[in-house]
Amino acid sequence: MQTEFQRAITNSSIGLWWKRCYLLYLSNLFLVTGYIALLFYALIWEAGLIVSLPTKRIGFYNICLWNEEAEELDCLLFKDLEKMGINKVALVLSRICVYATPVLCLYVATTILQALCLKDKDGWKLACTLLAVCALSLPAGLSLFLFQTERWVQISELGEGFAALAGAHALLLLHMIIIGIYLAQLKDALPPGQFFPVKSIP
């Protein structure tokens, strides 16, 4: 009787562990897919445009303002930006910070995949560190760009590209928090090739 009771407890513990494993897999999959898709939508599909209106198009590589005389959009060249009060160095830095984020996120995805397959605790730590870098670089680059173009950008004019970047940043923060909580609960390191930890996660 006692043996059957112990087996029941063991089976229920293993079942709970499997459920947590599936939840961990699914949450990481959805979050990684979510913010990578949003970043590529904003920076590739929308061409990095923060404001996209018939009379104004402002993005990391396109600053087009309405020319009242010609009655058409007039796009500024890179050499003309300083004349309009835009710091070229700040603009380049904003581009680097923002466009480096999806590249780092792809590396995060491969690191998490390796950590899930090999149960490598160091892989989770690396992924969390990279997510922290992404969570800092994206808003830093976006804020720097908006600071340089604030005279032409109104809050009500911010378009889908900005919303996608904001959503990606929220998912990055959420993913970093989830991994941080997982690492805090995981007290025993998992050696490569071992599926179950030495002690179950409390």
Layout: helices, strands, pairs:
Layout: H1 2-45, E1 49-53, E2 56-59, E3 63-67, E4 72-75, H2 88-118, H3 121-148, H4 160-185
Antiparallel strand pairs: 1-2, 2-3, 3-4
Helix pairs in contact: 1-2, 1-4, 2-3, 3-4
Radius of gyration, rounded? 23 Å
Largest sheet: 4 strands, antiparallel
- What value does the average pLDDT take? 80
Record field, number of beta strands: 4
Helix content: 55-70%
Which stretches are low in confidence, meaning pLDDT under 50 for 5 or more residues running?
4-18, 192-202
Shape: elongated
Strand order of the largest sheet: 1-2-3-4
Strand and helix order: HEEEEHHH
CA-CA gap between termini? 27 Å
- Structural class, by secondary structure, is alpha+beta
State the helix count: 4
Query: What percentage of the residues does DSSP assign to strands (E)?
Result: 5-15%
